[in-house]
Design brief:
2 domains, mainly alpha, Methane Monooxygenase Hydroxylase, Chain G, domain 1
Amino acid sequence: MSILQVFTLLGALGMFLYGMNLMSSGLQKVAGEKLRGFLSAMTSNPLKGALTGLGITTVIQSSSATTVMVVSFVNAGLLSLTQAISVIMGANIGTTVTAWLVSWLGFKADISVLAVPLMLLGFLFSNSKKDKRKNIGELIVGFSLLFLGLSFMKGAVPDLRQTPEVLSFVTEWAGYGFGSVLLFLAFGTILTLVLQSSSATMAITLIMLSMGWIPFTMACAMVLGENIGTTITANIAASVGNTQAKRAALSHTFFNLFGVLWALILFGPFLQLVGKITEVLFGLPNPAAEGFVVTDSASPEGAAALYGLSMLHTMFNLINTLVLVWCTRYMAKVVSWIIKTPENQEKEIFRLKYISAGHLATPELSVEQAFDEIIHFAQISKNGAAYAQSAIKEQNAEQFEVLRGKLVKYEEISDRIEYEIATFLNGVSADEISESTSVKIKAMYKIIGELESLGDSGNTIGRILSRKNMHKKEFDAETINNLNTMANAVANAYDVMIENLVAAHKGELDDIMNAYNAEEQINVIRNDFRDIVVSEIDNGTKNYQTSVYFMDIMNEYERMGDYMINISQDLERAFIGK
């Protein structure tokens, strides 16, 4: 095998992987956020969860994307661990569709002859001004590159029958009985770990089988290894997630390890079952029969081997799911016992919920993920405002210091969350994004800045109250009641802002009159009390310094109202187009 052939083979593999990623990305963009809604809604029982995973993976042609999405949802608390396990099981079945597409279109129908004309169609679609057509164009180009890459790989792989020395070496590898099965299983695992794509490894295995490099038995062992190797993606995604996310990823590993274990124990009978099904369904020779040899990929034996290997991949995951789907609760208990909840995790309520498991497969889905985090940020900010209101009423010095410490903590949390979301959005922006997604991301940058300012305001109110206490000044009952009136108006503005954030996220935001009304209420209250304070100072009925502290807090609350109306206006420009 010459150096040129080696580089041609590697380049063809790169083309295949790039085409696979591009096709998956296009499919996910076309499906859009409906995938997330479908995933959240269709997981009420284990069987539905498995069917959901099967459906989504069949659509987007990437079990890795599905499992990373599932880990993200578990990390966010949108899916329970039990639900996630069932979805991951279904995703394993869904990924077998790729093997059938490659076996049929890549080897038997040889769709690569249509790939170049399809590239023209994809190019025309990708130049459309409409995002949906661009995404369809990306899908078509990815589909074409996938099968072109497969065709080049087949052409670059040498026929070992022309090189008896190499053929005898490969044959020797396959001559150690069950030891060879374990050897090729390990090879399939390592290859999938390196390529980070079980679909690519499956394609390589199909090529090796069709070219007569390895017998059917060893190809089946490689497929079993590929099912172990593919679990690494979810574990990488979960490594920065919370405990539940790590448990979901570990359950994926357990699922495939259990399957490989029973498949190895029943290796002979299992292959005979797969061979018999292939023989009956397709009217082809039994690929698991003794003495079966592939001499030509275009022969009935070649077809039987390719279909048999795809059938094994499907049967392995199908049987594994049918056995384990009823045991999801027990699997959840096992992984929960292995990965225990850290003692301090239950106390840590300010962690990121939606983006700590990393990006999803496409910018569009990642933007939805970030928007969830922004809504969570707004809710945390409202909690901080509630502590500010409690601090105003607190008369006990020790309890006030506790509340003051919480306001300082909330400001630090706001700074941290703003930074994390901005960093996440920077990563999303680095990918190729549509114009509408770009507009949303710009608005999201502004929104997290305003939310961080709200955290600063809560801490500012705490500092004003500290100065008041340091100078031995106290608010009378009427003053505290007036401040509560303003704090309640700000709390209402928070509710309106969060309502608008949720509506924009769902695509249901029509106008922001509720936000204008909430801000107007805050301004009216501030102006009315300012006039009253000026009158009281003139009359000498209130202490001047105490009144200054009162108006400082009022002004800070009014600034909070400004930050919140700015957020609603950003939503209006980005999601309504005004």
